[in-house]
Amino acid sequence: MNKDLAGLGPRARLKDIARAIKLHAESRSLYDVNLPRSDLYVLLASDIDCIEHEVARLRAQLNASSPSHMIPPDIWMNIFHHLAALMPHSYGYQDCGGLGWIRAATHVCRYWRSVAMQDKSLWRHATEALGPEWLALMLSRSGYKPEALGLWGAKESMFLRPGAPPLCELTRLRRLCIFIGDAYGLDPRVLSLEARDIHTLKIHARTVDVFGISEGKIAPIDVTSVETLFPKLQALLIHNLPYVVPSQVFGLRSTLSQSLDTLSLTLNRWTIHSQTDVCVLTEFLRSQATLRSLTIRGYSFALSQDDIATETDDKKVHCPNLKSLLLEIEEDESALAILARLSFPHDAKVAIRTTSPVREEPSKAFESFQRRMLGSDSPMSNMRAAIWCRLDSRPWFKAQIRAPRHAHERPAVGLFMYRRGSAARLLTSFGKSPCDGDRADFELVFECRQIDGVPELNSIVPFASFRDVRFMSILSTDGKPSVVDYKRGWKPLFEVAQYLEWLRVDGSAVGRLLLDACCEKPGSCRSALGSVKELVMLDISSLARWWIPMCSLKDLLLHDDFSLEAITVEEDMFERATKIFGDSLDVHREADMRQLYFDSKL
User: Largest Cα–Cα distance of the chain, in whole Å?
Assistant: First the structure.
């Protein structure tokens, strides 16, 4: 190659070669290239293999001169160790633990690969889902010291074969995931593999045939042996094993009461299982002082009168370290009775979801729940933002593979509350379920009794529970839900929510809110909108159905008793609202305001 071209740096030479090849392929014109034409003719006259070889050589030279070669190998291992810690713990068929990071670490360049092959921490996640060859390779590269291992629970497991390394020799093994597939159940010998240093045990069945269980094809699990085999267990996660009833797990109190901090029992919907008494769960929580996370999904709990808290009964279950509670069961009364009994820190995340409709007549369980919401230790205290909406679909059911397609016939109604929320946070949630984003600090979800109806908000949660709320969003679907009591209207909410400064309503809620304000007596308009400073009104074009003309709306919103400073409307009403209110109020376009980001400082 010409000396002028050879004298350029590796990066400049790669750039010029790429430009020359592109020009030759597209226009075959070389007049605009800032290099001697003779050099380019020589380059393009070469065979394509020679060009590719030159590009590969320059790329290798560029990698060799990279600053990464100045980093000592021990520092590289430390970097790999921290980056590998970000890899999620998953052992599925499609998302096998470690593969994504292995490709990123070994397919960049030869130097990265050589360093990665020497770093044993990269190979600490091994799973039989990759096949026996990959599993053996990953175990050998980790020095037979993996930290996480996924294995089959059936007889095909490599560790059940003669000559396989016993789990007790894997001294650094801390996380064990046992898979149960479609064709085979759980081999009891898997749980007999002794590994006393394991702190996380996950038993996962993707699609277990419940009829195969009744026919004896799947051997039941002796959960009581968990205490003996895994004395240092801190997290126990069991998914989709209907023959493991919660009462068996709740009986593991003698040894694990001082170490267990995470418990998850989940079932796919419509899986055959037996009921568990509510008192068994409450007694278990009473004995687990170290429990930090509890997830129960898909099970059924039987409620007795003794489980319902009364006004004179102060036998609360104190969970001082509980930071996360997710309770999704079939019975609404059982869920509310459990919540009324529990006492947890104020910064805990609580989610109560039931798969049964809200009862029309209040029961004793609902009364105890409402007393808890009004108490000094209410989980709704110090909440800044609230969303009350109708959910036509529930995202958490997507992960339940065996749930039939008709499982979502009834819509749900949900209350989502946040301790650190803002108007921007609630406005950006338009058009999607609050469950799609970050998990709320307090979540309450029920099924609707009717497909076209939603119960009033104050029929489930007292308005007095919203005393600290500053931002509220009430969403509806096609004007179907009734969000407040039609007899009393919005006035009781504004009487107790004295700090409410941002309110968003749409659909039928807009018309009812403004109709109540118009019907207020002279001199009492202050209670019609309370202390709201910014009002977001979507679908105000439907006000004609409520017999509210725009002139009356102007007189109402510009009333001297109101503290209203700004309104936000949808796109097609922006120009009209600007002409009517622009001189006195700040008018915002909903599409523009939705671009605001969630301000975590609020």
Answer: 99
pLDDT at 352 over 80: yes
Q: Which of 16-30, 31-45, 296-310, 425-439 has the highest mean pLDDT?
A: 296-310
- DSSP letters along 370-422, please? HHHHHSTT-TTTT--EEEEEEESS-GGGGG-TT--GGGGSS-EEEEEEESS--
Contact 567, 537 (CB under 8 A): yes
- pLDDT value at position 175? 85
How much is the pLDDT for 431? 42
- What's the CA gap between 394 and 21, in Å, rounded? 53
- The residue with tokens 């759980």 is 186
State both tokens at 20.
């020359």
What's the confidence (pLDDT) of residue 84?
58
| Inter-residue contact 514 to 548 (CB < 8 Å) | yes
Which contiguous run of DSSP H or E holds residue 463? none
What is the C-alpha to C-alpha distance for residues 504 and 567, in angstroms, rounded to an integer?
Answer: 10
For the four alpha carbons of 383, 384, 385 and 388, in that order, the dihedral sign comes to: positive
Q: What's the per-residue H, E or C state across 411-459? A: CEEEEEEECCCCHHHHHCCCCCCHHHCCCCCEEEEEECCCCCCCCCHHH
Percent of the chain past pLDDT 70, that is, above it, reads: 48
400 contacts 206 by C-beta, under 8 angstroms:
no
pTM of the full predicted structure?
A: 0.72
Alpha carbons 471 and 269: distance in angstroms, whole number: 35
Measured distance CA(140)–CA(358) in Å, rounded:
56
Helix, coil or strand: residue 474: strand
Hey, which residues does 552 pair with through a beta bridge? none
Name residues whose C-beta falls within 8 Å of residue 26's C-beta, 6 or more positions apart in sequence: none
Which residue shows structure tokens 């800032």? Answer: 34
> CA dihedral defined by 536, 541, 542, 547, rounded to 10 degrees?
100
**Alpha carbon distance 567, 510 (integer Å):** 13
Per-residue pLDDT at 248: 74
What's the per-residue H, E or C state across 131-169? CHHHHHHHHHHCCCCCCEEEEECCCCCHHHCCCCCCHHH
Between 182 and 343, residue with greater pLDDT: 343
Structure token digits, residue 4: 């002028």
Phi, psi angles (nearest 5°) of residue 408: -110, 30
- Written as six digits, the tokens of 293 are 């996370």
What distance in Å separates the CA atoms of residue 58 and residue 79, rounded to the nearest whole number?
A: 27
First-last CA distance in the chain: 64
Of 188, 106, 166, the closest CA to residue 141 belongs to 106
**Considering only CA atoms, which of 446, 436, 341 is closest in space to residue 395?**
436
- Give the CA radius of gyration of the chain: 32
Query: Tokens in use for 8?
Result: 């350029």
Lowest mean per-residue pLDDT among 98-102, 198-202, 228-232, 305-309: 98-102
Write phi, then psi, for 473 (nearest 5 degrees).
-130, 125
Confidence of residue 361 (pLDDT cuts 50, 70, 90): low
pLDDT at 393 over 60: no
